[in-house]
Write a structure and sequence with these properties.
about 425 residues, four-stranded mixed sheet, 2 domains, about 25% strand, UDP-n-acetylglucosamine1-carboxyvinyl-transferase, Chain, transferase, binds shikimate-3-phosphate, EPSP_synthase, five-stranded mixed sheet
Length: about 425
Amino acid sequence: MTSTEVRTERVIAPARNILGSLRLPGDKSISHRYALLGGLAAGKTRLTNFSTGADCASSLGCVEALGAKITRSGEAIEIEGVGGIFQPSAQPLDCGNSGSTMRMLAGLLGPQNGSFTLIGDASLSRRPMERVRKPLMQMGADIQLTDGHAPMVIRGGKLQAIDYTTPVPSAQVKSAVLFAGLQAAGKTTVREAVRTRDHSELALRAFGANVERNLESVSIEGGQQLQGIEAAVPGDMSSAAFFLCAAALFPESNLVFEGLGLNPTRATLLDVLTALGAHIGVLNLEDKHGELVGTVQVNAPAGGLTGTTISGALAAQLIDELPVIAAIAPYTQNGIRIRDAKELRVKESDRIALVARNLRAMGAEVEEFEDGLDVPGKQTLHAAEIDAGGDHRIAMAFSVAALRATGETVIQGAESAAISFPEFFDLLDRVTER
Ligand code: S3P
């Protein structure tokens, strides 16, 4: 955080019920990809319901600094792409708090002529970047880091295709390699042991590229030119997660989401909530550029949520939802056990440590593991001062936990919600009955 940013606190009082209907701003992951690929493509990309979060603004800012023209026309964002060749920028490219921007941009810029410097805020400058440098170096890129971290200095040039197996389940790493592969000589293949979100594969196809997929690999032939698209970005499931979990806590609740992104690699939370006993209805399914979109209704079970274990592939698919799942775990009957989620330690904060610390501040019992947490059920939480640690998902997860606590909880660093979801507190007020 820089000295010009103001820390704000939010007071969250207990709720009686959650009721209403929401249409959420566009998915962060999809918005990043449409902004970055729209910047590279030939012609105009016109996007509606683009993410309102600061992270996606970082992606737009970077492609603009690289020569794409960005205009806002009413609700829409228009991007006039560079047609395959980015202009090196004299200034460093500021990725802000956004790991997605930095990692995916590295893949786009590795094969471009010129020198590019990518920087980020204090949190992003602590996050591991070697994971993208390694495959891109294997393709022939020249990338310098400091101790494995940003700033990232890329001296771009011609790259060769590779066949790469990702050592960590990471859609950002997969995307960086595919974006480099799009511009490399030959056919690039990425293999992953655990299937991560596939928005890049779908977005590349939407922009006209030929992408081959089978169960555990995805391949792209280099030298393909992208063409701009018109798209409405589906509502963000990871933002909906806070409201879905809030509604699941109140037996009389009824919450409906329209136009919500339901890509199967992102909608695992609906299965978890169903396993916990919540009633989830899905209707009006549509395909938008390969992305599934629909209406979702959630009602809580009369007897409270049961309990579950989240591990293996499930942990990777739920990686952004785990903080809020852990934050509501004390209110379940049998508790929630999370394993195989050590990636949580290298997100915008160490999310395992921060979730455990904040749950304890609210009086909960919780056991911390290197790769997860055990949170017993049937606990009563009390109000506390929560430290969001500059992490948007921690601020929002504990605002949800506060709805069932006794007393008024104070979320310190509430402004961080704006990284992905600036409307969060207003919408929470709108659907909360007190
Ligand atoms: C994202 C992938 C995930 C996720 C992040 C967004 C993406 O990160 O945590 O919020 O859009 O590809 P990793 O791929 O590094 O696990």
